[in-house]
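C-alpha cells in:
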C-alpha cells in the first residue's frame, strides 16, 4: 500500500482535520504559482469556502461553496474563448492531458491544472496522480504545515500522544493485539483468553467481552483477525482456535484443531483459506485449511533445524517467512502448494523474536544485542540483510515508510523511519505512566493500540500517531517518490470523468453527458404508469430504477419529485449507536425500522410526510442513494426540483458519531458527523419481481442463496458460487437494463498479479464501471495483462467465460464476502481502468475502492462470470 492523503471536498474528515481558519487564502489574495489549486474553508465552515486556483498572481475562486455546501458557482462546460470576465472558469477538453483547464482572465488564456483530477470509482475515492508533487512542491508530506490547508488536507502538529486507556484483569500477561474496525482484540497468556474492546471512541476504550478456556486457549498467544473470525494460536493447548467476533460483545468459539505439529503454537497469520502457524516446541510451520471455520484441518507442515523455536511468521505472495529464536534463522518457505511446504533458503539472524513483511523488505526484531534487522526479500530465493541496528524493539508494524514498534528498555512506543532501509532512524517515541511493560502493538487509522500487563491485570492503551499516519487507512506517509494517494474509506465517485459516460443532462464540473442506461431488469416488472427510469408515475412520484436483492427479488425504487431539504441534520447529536447493528447499506427501510431514540431531522422529513399520497417514505440507504445519483439526469428531466450538486444524507450509519452521505456533483460517498447539514431526498420501494416463483434475478436453481456452490463438472478449482445480483445500467453492456446473477470462483486466482506489466497507454477505450465483460473484450489475451489473462484462461467448474470483475461487480463481492468466503483483507483488482497508468482495485479489509493503483502493482485476483 502506498502512502496517501485524504481528499475532502465537502466534509469534515473522519479523522477530524481542523477547520480552515481566517488565515487561509481567499479570492483575490496574492499567490505566485500559476495552476496551484487548493481548498479554502468548506461546507463545514460557517460562511462556506472555495476551491481556489492561482492565475500566477491572484487566487481565483473556481468553485464556491455556500453554507452547508449547497451551490456551485459554475454550471455547464465553457467551450468558448477565455476572457477577463471568465476569470476562474473551468472546462473539460478531452484531447488535453490533463483534460481540465481554467481560464486565466488576466492573460485571457485557458491553462491546464497542474494538479490532478478527481475520478470516480463507484465506491468512491478521488486520488492524486503521479505528477502531483512534481507540479506542486507544497503537496509533499513535509510541507503540509500545521494549520495549512491544501485541497482539504490539513497539516497537523504534534507527535505521538496517549489519548485513552482501560484496565482489565483479563489482560494479565497480554500477548498480542489485533484491530478490526472499531474493535480491538487481545490474547492473554496467563488469562487463557481472548478479550474484545470497543475503541470507536479512542479516548474512552471499553471492554466488551472475554472468552476464557483453559482447554482451548491455554497460554493464548498468536492472534490474527480476518473477516468475522479471530484465529488464536495457544502455546499450552497446542492448538489453533477459531472464534466468531461478528458480535464483539458476545465472542464464541466456532472450531479448533490440535495436532502434534502445533506443539507450543506461538504465532499465526491468515491468508485466504489458510492459517499459517509457527509452533515453538514443535519447531514447525503448520498450514491449516480454515475454509470451513467449524472444521479446520491440517493440510501441511514443515519442520527442520532452521525452524528451531520459531517465534514469528509472515506470509507474502506464495512465500512464508519464519523467524526462529534458537536457530537464529530467517527461513523462506514456498507455500504455493499448502500440502507440501518446502524450504527455499534461510538467512542466519541470531535470536529472531518476530517478523513483519511489507513490500520488498522483512523487518526482524532480535533478542541478540537488541538488534533490529531489515532484510531485502525482493528475491525470496536470496534474502539479503541490508541493516542491523541496536534499537531494542519488538512487535513491528509497517505502514508506508515507517515501522511502529514497542521498546522494552524504556517502555516506549516508537516510530522508525525506514525510507532508507540501510539506515533506519527512530524519529519519535512515546513514554507515559501507562506505557509500562508494553508487549503488543496494532495500528488503526491514525491510532496505535498497545497493551501492557502484569500477572494480575493489564491495560489497553490507545495513542494518537500525530504526524505519523497509517497509510492503509488514508493518511499521508512519504514513500520513495514522495507521492500521496487518497484513502480507502470512501464510497461513490463518478463512474467515469468522460462526457460519454455521464448520464444525460448531468453536469459534473462542467461535463455534460448522455443517457447511459435504464429500463426494467430481466424478471423485474416495471411500474405500469412509469415504465422507464425518470417517468412520472400516476401518483406524481418518479421511478428511480431497480435494485436487485441477494435473494433474487427485485425492488423498484421511487423518489419524490423535489428535494425535501438542502440543509438538514442526520441527528441533532452524536455519541450513540442509533441503528441496530449491522446498519444496512442497501435497504433504507431496515435503517428506518431499527433506529433508536433521539431527534433525527433528515429521517423525519421522510417519515412524517405523505408525499404523493404515500406514507411509507424513508431516507435512502447508501445503495439506494447511489441509484438516485446514477439516474439523476433522467429523474431531473421530469422532476419539479432537480438534485443539487451538493451532499445528500443516506440512512446508513458508520459509527456512533458518523453517518454516510453522497455528493451529487461528484458522485462520491463518505461519512461525516451526524449533526452536519446536508440535503434530503426521500424514497420508497415496492416488490417488482416479475413472478413470485422466480423473483427478479434468478440464479442457478442449484445455488439459490448467496454463497451456495452451484452445479458444474467440478473441474479446475471447483464449481462457482452465487455472489448476488447486479442491475446493469451501462448502455454499452449487452445486459443493459437487466438484473443478472453473478457467479464467483471458490478461491482466489492469484494473491500477487499485475493488472498490466507496463504503463503509459490507454488500454480500455470504453471503460465500464459496471460490466467487466465490456472491459475484458478490449484487453488482449496476452501475458502483458496478467490479471485479465488469469480469468480469460480459467476453466473452472466446466465454465470458460470467466472475466475480471468491473468495480460494481467487485463491490458486490465485497458486500457478500463473508458469505462467499475465502477472500482476504487485501486489495483485489477490478477490470476498470482509471488512466493510462492506473486501474481500480478494492480493499476487502476496508471495503471501499482505491484509486491510483499502478497497473504493474501486485494485487489479488478473483474471477466472475454470468449467464
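Residues out:
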Amino acid at each position: 500500500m502506498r502512502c496517501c492523503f485524504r481528499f475532502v471536498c465537502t466534509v469534515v474528515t473522519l479523522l477530524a482535520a481542523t477547520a480552515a481558519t481566517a488565515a487561509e487564502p481567499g479570492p483575490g489574495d496574492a499567490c505566485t504559482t500559476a495552476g496551484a489549486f487548493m481548498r479554502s474553508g468548506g461546507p463545514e465552515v460557517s460562511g462556506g469556502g472555495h476551491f481556489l486556483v492561482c492565475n500566477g498572481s491572484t487566487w481565483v475562486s473556481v468553485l464556491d461553496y455556500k453554507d452547508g455546501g449547497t451551490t456551485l458557482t459554475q454550471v455547464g462546460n465553457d467551450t468558448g474563448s477565455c476572457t477577463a470576465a471568465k476569470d476562474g472558469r473551468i472546462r473539460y477538453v478531452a484531447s488535453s492531458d490533463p483534460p481540465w483547464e481554467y481560464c486565466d482572465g488576466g492573460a485571457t488564456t485557458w491553462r491546464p491544472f497542474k494538479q490532478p483530477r478527481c475520478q470516480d470509482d463507484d465506491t468512491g475515492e478521488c486520488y492524486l496522480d503521479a505528477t502531483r508533487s512534481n507540479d506542486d512542491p507544497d503537496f509533499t508530506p513535509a510541507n503540509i504545515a500545521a494549520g495549512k490547508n491544501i485541497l482539504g488536507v490539513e497539516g497537523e502538529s504534534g507527535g505521538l500522544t496517549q489519548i485513552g486507556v482501560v484496565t482489565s484483569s483479563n489482560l494479565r500477561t497480554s500477548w498480542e493485539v489485533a484491530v478490526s474496525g472499531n474493535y480491538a482484540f487481545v490474547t492473554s497468556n496467563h488469562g487463557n483468553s481472548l478479550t474484545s474492546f470497543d475503541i470507536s471512541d479512542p479516548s474512552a476504550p471499553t471492554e466488551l467481552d472475554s472468552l476464557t478456556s483453559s482447554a482451548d486457549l491455554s497460554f493464548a498467544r498468536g492472534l490474527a483477525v480476518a473477516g468475522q473470525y479471530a484465529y488464536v494460536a495457544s502455546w499450552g493447548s497446542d492448538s489453533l482456535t477459531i472464534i466468531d467476533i461478528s458480535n464483539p460483545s458476545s465472542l464464541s468459539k466456532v472450531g479448533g484443531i490440535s495436532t502434534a505439529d502445533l506443539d507450543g503454537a506461538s504465532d499465526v497469520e491468515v491468508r485466504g483459506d489458510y492459517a499459517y502457524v509457527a509452533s515453538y516446541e514443535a519447531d514447525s510451520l503448520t498450514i491449516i485449511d480454515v475454509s470451513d471455520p467449524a472444521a479446520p484441518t491440517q493440510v501441511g507442515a514443515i519442520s527442520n533445524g532452521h525452524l528451531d523455536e520459531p517465534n514469528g511468521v509472515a506470509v507474502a505472495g506464495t512465500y512464508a517467512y519464519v523467524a526462529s529464536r534458537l536457530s537464529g534463522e530467517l527461513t523462506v518457505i514456498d507455500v504455493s502448494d499448502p500440502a507440501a511446504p518446502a524450504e527455499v533458503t534461510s538467512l542466519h539472524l541470531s535470536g529472531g523474536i518476530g517478523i513483519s513483511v511489507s513490500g520488498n523488505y522483512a523487518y526482524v526484531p532480535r533478542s541478540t544485542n537488541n538488534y533490529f534487522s531489515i532484510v531485502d526479500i525482493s528475491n525470496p530465493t536470496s534474502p539479503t540483510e541490508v541493516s542491523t541496528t541496536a534499537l531494542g524493539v519488538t512487535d513491528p508494524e509497517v505502514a508506508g515508510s515507517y515501522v511502529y514498534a514497542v521498546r522494552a528498555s524504556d517502555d516506549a512506543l516508537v516510530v522508525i523511519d525506514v525510507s532508507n532501509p540501510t539506515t533506519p532512524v527512530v524519529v519519535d517515541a512515546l513514554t507515559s505512566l501507562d506505557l509500562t511493560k508494553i508487549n503488543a502493538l496494532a495500528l488503526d487509522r491514525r491510532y496505535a493500540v498497545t497493551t501492557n500487563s502484569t500477572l494480575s491485570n493489564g491495560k489497553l492503551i490507545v495513542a494518537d500517531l500525530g504526524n505519523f499516519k497509517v497509510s492503509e487507512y488514508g493518511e499521508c506517509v512519504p514513500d520513495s517518490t514522495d507521492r500521496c494517494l487518497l484513502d480507502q474509506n470512501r464510497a461513490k465517485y463518478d463512474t467515469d470523468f468522460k462526457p460519454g459516460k455521464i448520464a444525460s443532462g448531468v453536469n459534473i464540473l462542467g461535463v455534460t453527458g448522455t443517457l447511459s442506461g435504464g429500463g426494467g431488469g430481466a424478471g423485474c416488472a416495471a411500474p405500469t404508469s412509469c415504465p422507464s427510469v425518470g417517468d412520472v408515475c400516476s401518483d406524481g412520484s418518479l421511478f428511480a430504477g431497480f435494485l436487485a436483492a441477494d435473494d433474487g427479488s427485485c425492488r423498484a425504487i421511487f423518489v419524490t419529485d423535489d428535494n425535501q431539504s438542502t440543509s438538514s441534520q442526520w441527528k441533532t447529536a452524536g455519541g450513540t449507536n442509533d441503528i441496530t447493528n449491522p446498519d444496512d447499506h442497501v435497504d433504507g427501510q431496515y435503517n428506518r425500522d431499527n433506529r433508536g431514540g433521539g431527534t433525527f431531522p433528515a429521517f423525519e422529513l421522510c417519515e412524517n410526510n405523505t408525499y404523493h399520497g404515500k406514507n411509507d417514505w424513508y431516507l435512502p440507504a447508501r445503495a439506494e442513494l447511489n441509484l438516485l445519483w446514477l439516474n439523476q439526469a433522467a429523474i431531473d428531466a421530469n422532476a419539479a426540483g432537480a438534485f443539487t450538486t451538493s451532499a445528500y444524507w443516506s440512512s446508513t450509519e458508520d459509527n456512533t458519531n458518523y453517518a454516510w452521505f453522497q455528493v451529487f456533483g461528484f458522485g462520491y460517498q463518505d461519512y461525516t458527523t451526524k449533526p452536519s447539514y446536508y440535503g434530503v431526498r426521500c424514497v420508497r420501494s415496492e416488490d417488482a419481481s416479475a413472478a413470485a416463483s422466480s423473483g427478479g434475478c434468478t440464479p442457478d436453481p442449484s445455488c439459490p442463496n448467496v454463497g451456495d456452490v452451484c452445479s458444474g463438472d467440478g473441474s479446475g478449482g471447483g464449481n462457482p458460487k452465487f455472489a448476488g445480483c447486479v442491475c446493469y445500467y451501462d448502455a454499452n453492456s449487452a445486459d443493459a437494463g437487466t438484473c443478472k446473477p453473478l457467479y464467483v470462483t471458490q478461491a482466489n486466482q492469484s494473491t500477487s498479479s499485475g493488472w498490466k506489466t507496463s504503463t503509459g497507454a490507454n488500454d480500455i477505450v470504453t471503460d465500464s464501471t459496471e460490466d467487466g465483460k465490456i472491459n475484458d473484450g478490449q484487453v488482449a489475451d496476452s501475458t502483458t495483462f496478467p490479471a485479465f489473462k488469469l480469468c480469460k484462461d480459467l476453466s473452472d467448474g466446466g465454465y470458460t467465460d470467466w472475466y475480471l470483475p468491473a468495480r460494481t461487480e467487485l463491490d458486490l463481492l465485497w458486500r457478500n464476502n463473508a458469505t462467499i468466503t475465502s477472500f482476504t483483507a487485501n486489495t483485489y483488482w477490478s477490470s476498470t481502468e482509471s488512466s493510462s497508468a492506473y486501474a481500480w482495485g478494492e480493499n476487502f479489509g476496508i471495503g471501499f475502492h482505491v484509486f491510483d493503483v499502478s497497473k504493474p502493482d501486485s494485487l489479488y485476483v478473483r474471477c466472475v462470470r454470468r449467464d
